[in-house]
Structure formats: structure tokens, C-alpha cells
Amino acid sequence: MDITQGLLKTIYVNKMVKAGYIVKILIADWFAQRNHRICSNKYVIRKIGFYNIEMWKAAGMDLDRVELVWFSDVLERHASDYWPLALDVSRKCTLKRMASCCTETAPYDPRLPAAVIFYPCMQVAAILCPKLQADIWLFSMDQQEIVMLTREYCEDIKSESKPTIMLHNTLPNLVDNPYIVLKDPYNMREPKWNIFMHDKECALNGKISRAVCPPKVAVCNPCLEYIKYVMFPWFGKFEVAQKEQSGVNKSFECMEDLIVDYESGDLDPLNVKLAFEKGICKILEVIIASL
User: Which residues touch 190 (CB under 8 Å, ≥6 apart)?
Assistant: First the structure.
């Protein structure tokens, strides 16, 4: 599990619970069977689901006020509602449009497994299935194509009501920068460019030391993205030790102040990365210890 699924999901779910929402998390265990990288054994997949739950619990998600819904259980009871809808979505969408929603490989690759192509239809059907109706759905930004496909389908069938869907940000990989182009775009998804919930200090040190953090550039700076969406919500502040200057720690209460100092050159990228590494290590150490 990467920290977008672990930490960010925990942060946003807790915010919704605090705001008074009744939150349900749909654990898409049935969907996982179509993933060729995961064993199709439903008992193994269920174990992965329980692992995710324990990880959220360790991260501090308020699970006492969250209902966990296993999609396989829903499907067993309401298959007659779900599958006709999934098939209708597939009839009204082209193969090329389906492939454009697949994040696992390049759009419209003829080598795509058929299960991957059909997956967007299954996702849309889950959103629109009457037995899974929600006032608001929360997805991450990497699911934006699925959200658009859902709206397109609703418009195509002239549905009077469309689902309300909120999108939260996702964390970039550590080399996600427009000024850097990797020879192989698939490398962008490699574990060495991303942070996972089970990463230990030695692994984090190597990953963050190689991370892109251009001096005086805040836009598209992956390290600053992690600080903005993880460090500040988690700790309420961000502290940088300015070793090469006064030697005094500088504490920031908001991201805007940090950006001003960073773009002016008052903050050294190395010091920022060291502070980022220290913070993420502190978070993950507690989580790993509690598992």
C-alpha cells in the first residue's frame, strides 16, 4: 500500500467523519481478481483487504465511525442489479474509450488483457448501482477518467440524476517533474520512486535522497507536494533545520509561508528533503510498530 492509499485516505476520511458524514469504504475485493499482478484466489484477496484495514487502523483512521463494505458481499446479494448495468455501460462505450481509462498501461495497447478493458465498466456500474447509492463519492484524482466516463454514460442514457463525486489529490512519484523525462515511462510506477506504508528508514533515505527538489521552484516539486498534503495535515506544522546557515530550526505553520521562503532561496533543498525524510520516518515508524 502506498501512502496515498494509506495516509491520504486516512486524512480525508477523518475529515469527512469530523464534518458529520456517515462514511462507508467500499473494499473492492472482487475487482482485484481481474488484476494479473494479484492472485485470483478470493481468500488471498480477502487477506489483502484485511491488511489494508489494519494499515488504516494503525494510521489512525476513525474506523469506529466508518462502515467497511466488501464488494464481493454486495455482489452476492445484488448481482441482478449490478451486472445488467455493467453490460449496458460496455455497450455504450467504445473499446478505445475503455482503454483510455486504464491506468495500468499505455492507452489502447492491443496487448491489454480483456479483464483490464472491462474494468472501467465495472467501476461505473458500482458507482451507479442502486444498492450502493451514496450522497457523495470520494475518489482520488487518478480515477478522474472513471468519473468522466460515469458522467458520459449518465448523459447518454439521459439520467435525471447524476452522482456527486469529489476528487482528492494524489501524491506524485518522487521524480514527477516536467523537466525530467525518463526513457521508460513505465519506470514512473516503480517502487523506488514511490513511498509505501511499510518502508523503513533505510529505504526512505535512499528514495528521498534521489527525489527531485529543484532550488527555488515550488511548482511541480514532488517533495513540496508531500509536505503540503501529508506533513502539514499530520503535524500541523513543518520544521526545517537550517544546518548550513544559522543552525536554527525554522518552523512553518502553513504551506504558503514555506513556499515564499523556498522560492526566495532562503531554504536549501537539501535541508527541506532532510526535514521531509525525518517527518515521514516518524509517521511510518509509529504505524509499522503498531501493526
Answer: none
For 3-168, which CATH class? Answer: alpha beta
Secondary structure of residue 168 in the 3-state scheme: strand
What is the value of pTM for the model shown?
A: 0.86
CB atoms within 10 A of CB 194: 19
The interaxial angle of helices 269-290 and 42-59, nearest 10 deg, is: 120
Q: Where does CATH 1.10.240.10 sit in the chain? A: 185-290
Q: Which residue type sits at 211?
A: A
Query: Looking at the chain, which residues constitute the CATH 3.40.50.620 domain(s)?
Result: 3-168
Q: Cα separation of 29 and 44, whole Å?
A: 10
Spatial distance between the Cα atoms of 272 and 267, rounded to a whole number of angstroms: 7
Residue range 239-260, pLDDT digits in tens? 998 765 556 789 999 999 999 9
- Maximum Cα–Cα distance across the chain: 68
CATH 1.10.240.10 fits 185-290, yes or no: yes
